[in-house]
Amino acid sequence: MPTQLTRPISALAKWLCGSAPVENKVLLMGDYECGKTTFLDRLKFEQVREHPNHTVNVNVETVEYPKGYNWHIWEIGGMVSLPFMIITRSLGKIKYADILAQKGDQKSRQLAWHHLSPATLVIYLHDCGNPADRVPVSFSPLLQDMANIGAKYIWIAFNKQADWGFKRARINTLRQEYEKELENYGGRISGKVLTHRLDAKSAEGTFIVLEDMFATMRDPRDNSPRLPAPGRPKKDLALQRLVEMEIAQDDMDPEVFWEYLQKGVFINWSHYHLIKALYMVVLQSVEEQAINPLPSVGSRETCFDIASTFDRYMNVMSRTSPRWFEKTRHK
Ligand SMILES: Nc1nc2c(ncn2[C@@H]2O[C@H](COP(=O)(O)OP(=O)(O)OP(=O)(O)O)[C@@H](O)[C@H]2O)c(=O)[nH]1
Ligand SMILES: [Mg+2]
Fold first, then answer.
1. Nearest-CA neighbor of 227 among 11, 4, 3, 26?
2. Centroid of ligand 1 to alpha carbon of 55 (angstroms)
3. What ligand is nearest to the CA atom of residue 43?
4. How far is residue 10 from each of residues 15, 135, 250, 254, 281, measured CA to CA in Å?
5. Which protein residues touch ligand 1 with a CB less than 6 Å away?
6. Which of 54, 101, 157, 280 has the highest local Cβ count within 10 Å?
7. Enclosing domain of residue 211
8. Tens digit of each residue's pLDDT (9 = 90 or more) over 128-144
9. Element at 76 (helix H, strand E)
10. What is the number of the ligand 1 atom nearest to the C-alpha of 48?
11. Residues 199, 312: one domain?
């Protein structure tokens, strides 16, 4: 009976369960109607709505890109639903728009503050269709909040380029303005201004934003501090929790487990039991060879021999407890 059952089995469990996906929380921000919902729809559904509703509070979708990387994207809406008729009656149109924008900015700042954490990434969309043609007033307070919270990464991208015949020179001027704002934070915020042609409505350049975030975060040559990952990476923690849960629930004495395995009788049988059984068979083989060393290396038990012993146990069990094998055939 193998005696090393307390040895960690996380490597085997990892092989069995696969790696947990890498999870990233992203805040999608930008001025009112800059195209956030359209951008998110394009990433998630590859289709966009002609007239999306204004986003009140938040709109969340998870996008997997590439496989194994989940981006939980939270669109932060700033729109305040004020009754249009009352405002237009009492105020001029421009004033109405200003008040609405200010209220919207305050609300989205509060929402962003609530959702920002040091591990949050930010995508900030600039609306190229906006005739104001400058860095929006909402940008600087957002950077302040990020710096205060310790959120480090922001990607800025210029949306709505297709319809507006945007010139490179104009994009370059805007890029410099954004970079100037970022410089005020002297390394506390790592911002990147993406100047590629982006037009979420016509699908141009949408995934390049995620691609760039993915490349920045996983590129080992980039020495700048990564997203804060105190201790172990998240994916290992998720896996560790899974393994710990299985182990915690396993109160069967190893002697009993071994006996059941040889007889092929189990009350419960899961992937965890399968891997534990294989682990015990391997340990048994190692122990036996330590006690009774075989005469030459060539006649040592190979992994094929161990596999065939394991197969024998599984065949016994498939006869004695066929219900555990209803969905699988062991070959
Ligand atoms: N030409 C063009 N129009 C766009 C693009 N993206 C969005 N729009 C249009 O801009 C308007 C606002 O788009 P939304 O996606 O709702 O913008 P939003 O930022 O989510 O708006 P709020 O949630 O209200 O702040 C819609 O009429 C869209 O069709 C784009 O890339 N190009
Ligand atoms: Mg929206």
1. 26
2. 11
3. 1
4. 9, 50, 15, 18, 17
5. 32-38, 51-52, 54-55, 77, 79, 159-160, 162-163, 199-201
6. 157
7. 21-218
8. 988 778 899 889 999 99
9. strand 69-76
10. 29
11. no
Last residue of a domain, one of 174, 195, 218: 218
Q: Are residues 30 and 164 in the same domain?
A: yes
Intra-chain end-to-end CA distance of the chain, in Å: 25
* Other Cβ atoms closer than 10 A to 6: 8
Tell me, yes or no, whether 75 and 159 share the same domain.
Answer: yes
For residues 210 and 287, membership in a common domain is answered with no
- Which numbered ligand comes closest to the C-alpha of 38? 1
Cβ–Cβ < 8 Å for 210, 65:
yes
ipTM of the shown complex: 0.99
Query: What is the token pair recorded at 310?
Result: 């394991």
Distance 39 CA to ligand 1 centre (A): 8
Q: 300 and 159, same structural domain? A: no
Q: What Rg do the C-alpha atoms of the chain give, in angstroms?
A: 29
Over residues 277-327, the pLDDT tens digits come to 888 888 888 887 777 665 555 556 778 888 888 888 888 888 887 777 765
CA 28 to CA 105: how far, in whole Å?
A: 14
| 88 annotated binding-site participant | no
